[in-house]
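Summary for the steering committee. One of the milestones for this cycle was to obtain a three-dimensional model of the protein with zinc ion bound, which we needed before selecting residues for the alanine scan. The sequence and ligand used are listed below.
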Amino acid sequence: MATEMIAGRPPAESHTLRAEEERLRAHLEQQLRVRTRFAPLADVRALLVSPDRDDRPKSLVVSSQASIAERIYLYVHVAAHIALGHHLPLVTIVEGPPGVTRFTDASRHREAEDLARAIWWGQTDKGGLLGPPAFVRHSTMLRRLLASDPSRTALRSLLIGMRHVYYDLRVERALAGSRLAAWLRDALCLTAVVCVAPQLSD
Ligand SMILES: [Zn+2]
């Protein structure tokens, strides 16, 4: 099932996700001085390593197995940890697989999840720089549909179906610059991120 979904994934979705991932990664580096790199990590999704002094860049090591959508979530979550002041000198914050936290860290990760949700939906970040792409940023309809597991799955299937119709009708060239195409790309991107990080939903 998962393989079918990946094989059938419309090309524009992964392109939009990749562009969003690059945008958020650049934001982390420029605004929060977090340098990201990728490495094979066993049983860990990401490590945020803080230097001995606050004026030095922090390092974020992300598992090379993390999907693009997961990386987007991790960037928002890490930004929340930093906003909460969890990045103490020489302390490494460990992000485990979704839903798995070490007992001692559980309350901090929960706090970061709560703040990440507020950041993602633009409640703390007026410019929406760490939120979903522009066309769907303020869509209460999508947000409501993403709030529960069954409607989230149905929405994703519906959007992917719409994307296939769009390509099958061979109208993508005519509609490439349209608001409909942009909305569809952004909606797929938003849905992909919330599907891998349901804690972002209400
Ligand atoms: Zn965390």
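Key point for the committee: The radius of gyration is 17 Å.
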